[in-house]
Specification:
7 helices, Arc Repressor Mutant, subunit A, mainly alpha
């Protein structure tokens, strides 16, 4: 094994690319990118969040989250509703288009996630999640 292959960042990136490819197979027909798909799943999971809350929920910086939300709104997947108490703030909701595809998205998410998670025994998956959490910055 080379130095590069022993690098944790290299190995995680390689695994992530394979997982992203698997998701891409299912989401391209909707015209969504990997980032847009996960942002949309977060919105479908919890409607009415502020953009800053969605950024936190998806572990993205705010400018990146805003860009994803802008494109999702442009393409008709989400709607911004102004906050009645403070018109400078707005909350994000799925559009009818997103709600109509919610079952397909959740199914795609579950099938793809299961494809990879099921490679582990339940105790292995739990340990793997614990190992990954050790890599998170304090």
């Amino acid at each position: 094994m080379s130095e590069l292959e022993r690098c944790v960042c290299f190995q995680l990136n390689r695994a992530s690319q394979k997982i992203r490819r698997r998701y891409r197979e299912g989401i391209t027909k909707y015209g969504l990118t990997h980032g847009q798909f996960f942002m949309l799943c977060a919105i479908l999971e919890e409607e009415g969040l502020l953009p800053s809350q969605l950024a936190d929920k998806t572990e993205l910086d705010r400018p990146t989250a805003t860009g994803l939300l802008d494109r999702l709104e442009r393409d008709g997947w989400v709607e911004r509703h102004t906050e009645p108490r403070d018109r400078r703030m707005y909350r994000i909701f799925p559009s009818a288009k997103a709600i109509n595809n919610k079952g397909d998205f959740l199914s795609l998410f579950e099938q793809t996630n299961s494809h990879f998670v099921n490679r582990f025994a339940p105790d292995e998956w739990k340990r793997f999640q614990e190992y990954l959490s050790r890599l998170e910055l304090p």
